[in-house]
Amino acid sequence: MTEKDEDRGCCPLCQLMSWSRDSEAAQHLRNARKEVLLAVKAVVEAGIERLDKESTRKDEGPARKVEIS
Question: Which of 7, 19, 34, 50 is 20 to 30 Å from the Cα of 27, by its Cα?
Answer without folding.
Answer: 7
